[in-house]
Amino acid sequence: MRVNVSTEQGKSTFREGLVQVNPLEEDPWAIQIGHERIIAPGCTARLYGHHLEKVTGIVIANQTVTRLVQGSDDQGMYLEYQVPQEVTEGGASHYFIGCGWSGIRRRQSECEP
């Protein structure tokens, strides 16, 4: 975020910084269990987290995935999804889509060929 401030005398300055928004207690959010952040195009990926039953889709690298499989194991609740073929190698962010909560949680992933 960038904040610009100007005076009546015509002087100005700015400050830049990152804003991190933490989820509310009832919001869905992802956690890291192991190497699930490393994904590959066309493969099945798994995200662990809390309140994932509220998630109706995941946006990754500007591609929306709505076919999600919810499950749980001894490590917690998870969502499985097919990584779009259009995802390229490098970093990409996940965005959760859903209704009934106050925000979107972002998560960084690394894509491997």
Which characteristics define this entry?
113 residues, mainly beta, five-stranded mixed sheet, 11 strands, elongated, disordered C terminus
Helix share, percent: under 10%
Q: How is the biggest beta sheet arranged?
A: 5 strands, mixed
Task: Walk across the major sheet and give the strand order.
Answer: 4-11-10-6-7
Low-confidence stretches: 101-113
Mean pLDDT reading: 80
Q: How many H/I helical runs?
A: 0
Rounded to an integer in angstroms, the radius of gyration calculated over CA atoms is: 18 Å
Structural class: mainly beta
Number of strands: 11
Roughly how many Å apart are the termini? 33 Å
- Series of H and E elements: EEEEEEEEEEE
% residues in beta strands: over 45%
Morphology? elongated
Could you provide a short overview of the structure?
The protein is an all-beta fold. Helices cover 0% and strands 51% of the residues.
How would you describe the overall organization of this protein?
There is one protein chain. With 113 residues, this protein is mostly beta strands. It has strands at residues 2-6, 12-16, 29-31, 38-39, 44-50, 55-60, 63-65, 69-73, 76-82, 90-98, 106-111. The strands form 3 sheets. Strands 4-11-10-6-7 form a 5-stranded mixed β-sheet, with no helix packed on it. It has a 4-stranded antiparallel β-sheet with strand order 3-5-9-8, with no helix packed on it. Strands 1-2 form a two-stranded antiparallel sheet. The protein is elongated, with a radius of gyration of 18 Å.
